[in-house]
Design a protein that fits this description.
The complex is a heterodimer of chains A (323) and B (354). With 323 residues, chain A is of the alpha/beta class. The radius of gyration of chain A is 19 Å and the shape is globular. Chain A contains 11 helices and 7 strands. Chain A is 42% helix and 9% strand. Chain A has a single domain, classed as 3-Layer(aba) Sandwich (Rossmann fold), CATH 3.40.50.970. In chain A, helix 2 packs parallel to helix 8. In chain B, 55% of the residues are buried. Chain B folds into 2 domains: 180 residues, Rossmann fold (3-Layer(aba) Sandwich); 146 residues, Rossmann fold (3-Layer(aba) Sandwich). Chain B is an alpha/beta fold. The longest helix of chain B is centred in the first third of the chain and has 15 residues. Chain B is built from 13 helices and 14 strands. Helix content of chain B is 35%, strand content 17%. A 7-stranded mixed sheet of chain B has the order 3-2-4-5-7-6-12, with helices on both faces. Chain B has a 5-stranded mixed sheet with strand order 9-11-10-13-14, sandwiched between helices. Classes of the chains: A alpha/beta (323), B alpha/beta (354). Chains A and B meet through helix 5 and helix 6 of A and helix 3, helix 4 and helix 5 of B.
């Protein structure tokens, strides 16, 4: 396969591949580790959805800020969150990104602009708008990217936030990761009219849909949207079509629940973005990246294994913030 | 706790809140006010009057009718380091904010082990009288006291209103700031220079040896009137205003009860699973086995608030019912005492609509 978009360099393709590979391998390792019960935390795996977070974060600046969801491993790693601190957090260890108090559902790394994630659907969307409001007040040139699943659009908070973000022309890019299902409920059984872009546009926010989790098309779209938002256009919505390959929660297979046709899932797996991007690279480059990812992953596991658990007395820390 | 000098100027409770906001907005460009109607001609009973003209429309602005998302917006701005003040004309509307306040604001510092903080003030006005009815009269401090990670102020005097507001704005945590509509016209001495009233410090308002009366918000005013009635029959009441409900200064309350042997808690809300029961439980845990004491709770009748005046009169504790309860605790249930009490001026003169 050839890279037919000359605006995206070979180095960028290599970065896309490496980032997706990092996320994929971390989550495959979580699946392998799960039977040991070393990870005592519900995990919502991103396998199959990695390309959305990677494409968006590669098009953002390091100083931009992202808000995500409990299915947040991909976003955390795509924004260059610390892999060691993430793995220690899954282990519930003191060197975790939140000293074990967060677990998989509340990953955070403020050094890279990764805001802590929430397990309550749609709750971070309005916070992303509030953060964007603060950036605008300060005349910052940073923007916010806010990720949510299409399930969050069932919540009133989504509608309330779209209105406010458009009203105040806030510097925020909304990224709807449309994987078609909220747990096992199809979007068709939940939405009166499944037209996510039209719904967004009804608030006066330009919206565009990118098919097939296409990393390169998403990247190009976010680049142009981010430039417009930085120039003061107000919010934009991207509907990124994607697919969750694994179960809603836990390490298991998804197809065992029989709620969607096998062919649907098979088609997505056959069109794997990681495989496609990998084939655009020279074999030696791909092997080098794979080696680097395995080394980083092994170091993160060792780090998590060797980190101590927090002391009992830590239970009382940070109930309140100190000035 | 510091007290005001006696030769200073006076402000109303509402003017004190306005002055606190103005001074903090001038001091810190990160402080801003949002809420339905904060920049209209009435200016939230004057407490936000003309701040949009003085500081700009982006620092004091009206919001859509979207309490859930607007609370999230305020939290998001706080996460970015700003100091939002989100105003609600009635505390009843805070039920629409509960998810953001309880699941998000209260837990952000803890879940992320101090990586973020939420310096947010949520102003909530408790309504009463002239037809406020069941949905414009509720006080939900007990709901919020239940949740670790939230602070709660319920100041009664203009002095405390200003100082507590300044402390709330400067605090790095989410603060629910309870105001009572009947307190807005109260006047008191308020220093002009900015000052803070600390969290977790109760005010011992009067000394007395027979009964400790702990009251919340507007009920402090009624408790003080009851104290004067009780004086006529030789009963000395020690009235305590907690000011800060979370953190709570239980030490001042327990020390008083250990002297008086009687604890009467008068709440601005219902009793079941509430503030009043919590005070009794804490006092029992501290004094149980060491000292017996009498205890009684008063608060809203166990009904929604009725709109019609005669029933509303029955719904709330007042100076007369508080005095009678304290009298019965001191003199025994059978002791008779006939008292007539005029309706307080702030209620008799209050003409709505809000």
């Amino acid at each position: 396969m050839k890279n037919n978009d000359p605006s995206i360099s070979a180095d960028t393709i290599a970065r896309f591949y490496k980032q997706i590979r990092r996320i994929r391998r971390v989550e495959e390792t979580v699946i392998d580790l799960y039977p040991t019960d070393k990870i005592k935390s519900p995990v919502h795996l991103s396998i199959g959805q990695e390309s959305v977070s990677v494409a968006v974060c590669e098009a953002l600046r390091p100083t931009d800020v992202v808000f995500g969801t409990y299915r947040g491993h991909a976003l955390y790693l795509a924004k260059y969150g610390d892999m060691k601190a993430m793995m220690a957090e899954l282990y519930g260890k003191a060197d975790g990104c939140a000293r074990g108090k967060a677990g998989s559902m509340h990953l955070v790394d403020m050094k890279v602009g990764m805001m802590g994630t929430s397990a309550i659907v749609a709750t971070s969307i309005s916070q992303a708008a509030g953060y964007a409001f603060a950036l605008k007040q300060r005349k910052s040139d940073a923007i916010v990217a806010c990720f949510y699943g299409e399930g969050a659009m069932d919540e009133g908070a989504w509608h309330e936030t779209m209105n406010f973000a458009a009203l105040k022309k806030l510097p925020v890019l909304f990224v709807c990761e449309n994987n078609g299902y909220a747990i096992y409920s199809s979007v068709k059984d939940r939405m009166s009219s499944v037209n996510i872009c039209a719904r967004s546009e009804s608030y006066g926010i330009p919206a565009a849909r990118i098919e097939n989790g296409d990393t390169r098309k998403l990247y190009a779209k976010v680049q142009s949207d981010a430039a417009a938002i930085r120039a003061g256009s107000g919010p934009r919505v991207i509907e990124a079509m994607t697919c969750r390959w694994r179960d809603h929660v836990g390490p298991g297979e998804d197809r065992v629940h029989r709620y969607r046709p096998d062919a649907e899932l098979n088609a997505w797996i056959a069109a794997d973005e990681m495989k496609k991007l990998g084939e655009l690279l020279p074999a030696t480059k791909r092997a080098e990246i794979d080696r680097d990812v395995e080394a980083e992953l092994a170091a993160a596991i060792t780090f998590a294994e060797q980190s101590p658990y927090p002391e009992d007395r830590e239970i009382y820390d940070h109930v309140f913030a100190a000035e | 706790m510091s007290s005001p000098p006696s030769d200073a100027r006076t402000l109303t409770y509402g003017q004190a809140l306005l002055e606190a906001a103005r001074q903090e907005m001038a001091r810190d460009a990160g402080v801003f006010i949002m809420g339905l109607g904060v920049d209209d001609a009435k200016g939230m009973y004057g407490t936000t009057a003309n701040l949009h003209k003085e500081f700009g429309a982006d620092r004091c602005f009206d919001t859509p009718l979207a309490e859930d998302a607007m609370t999230g917006v305020a939290i998001g701005a706080a996460l970015a380091g700003m100091r939002p003040i989100h105003v609600h004309q009635r505390m009843d509307f805070l039920l629409l904010c509960m998810n953001q306040l309880v699941n998000m604001a209260a837990k952000s510092s803890y879940m992320f082990s101090g990586a973020v903080s939420v310096p947010l003030v949520v102003r909530a006005i408790i309504g009463r009288s002239w037809g406020q009815g069941a949905q414009h009269s509720q006080a939900f401090h007990s709901y919020f006291m239940h949740v670790p990670g939230l602070k709660i102020f319920a100041p009664t005097t203009p002095y405390d209103a200003k100082g507590a507001m300044i402390a709330a704005i400067r605090d790095p945590n989410p603060v629910v700031f309870m105001e009572h509509r009947m307190l807005y016209s109260f006047k008191g001495i308020v220093p002009e220079a900015a000052y803070e009233v600390p969290f977790g410090r109760a005010r011992l308002l009067t000394h007395g040896k027979h009964v400790t009366i702990v009251a919340v918000s507007y009920m402090v005013a009624e408790a003080l009137r009851a104290k004067h009635l009780l004086e006529e029959v030789g009963i000395e009441a020690e009235v305590i205003d907690p000011v800060s409900l979370a953190p709570l200064d239980i030490d001042t309350i327990v020390t008083s009860v250990s002297r008086t042997g009687r604890l009467l808690v008068v709440d601005t809300s219902w009793l079941t699973c509430g503030f009043s029961g919590e005070i009794l439980a804490l006092a029992l845990e501290r004094l149980g086995g060491k000292q017996a004491f009498q205890a009684k709770r008063m608060g809203y009748a166990p009904t929604p608030c009725p709109t019609t005046k005669p029933l509303e009169n029955v719904f709330y504790p007042n100076a007369r019912t508080i005095a009678l309860a304290a009298h019965a605790m001191v003199k025994g249930e059978g002791a008779s005492w006939k008292i007539e009490v005029q309706e307080p001026r702030e209620i008799a003169e209050f003409k709505g609509p809000f």
